[in-house]
Design goal:
This is DUF4158 domain-containing protein. The protein is an all-alpha fold and 108 residues long. The protein contains 5 helices and no strands.
């Protein structure tokens, strides 16, 4: 989690020492993620955004970048540029879809 996000979450739970006890899977985190997105000027990704990101990866990144980690870095940079919340735990599926669409199936 980015440093600014940790700071915001820690302020929301009102104590830095309680992060270990924070409910990272419930409704509270969903509400806090929304507050963090709003504070940082981001928005949730839509299905159309996902398709556009995969097309962009296939056309712009996968033909030039051999390592999957480099493709992931490109994906995260693109999400930041578009002010879209990056995929949580799903970047691998974006990389595979981008590679599949580009015809390049190199692994890290």
């Amino acid at each position: 989690m980015a440093g600014s996000s940790v700071f915001l979450v820690s302020g929301m739970v009102r104590a830095n020492g309680l992060l270990a006890d924070y409910d990272w899977a419930g409704r509270t985190i969903e509400r806090h993620r929304g507050q963090i997105r709003e504070a940082l000027g981001f928005r949730e990704s839509t299905r159309a955004n996902e398709d556009e990101l995969i097309e962009w990866l296939a056309a712009e990144i996968c033909p030039m970048v051999l390592a999957d980690e480099g493709v992931r870095a490109g994906l995260l940079a693109r999400c930041r540029k578009l002010r879209i919340e990056p995929p949580v735990g799903a970047s691998g599926s974006y990389v595979r879809a981008g590679r599949g669409s580009s015809g390049r199936s190199v692994s890290s």
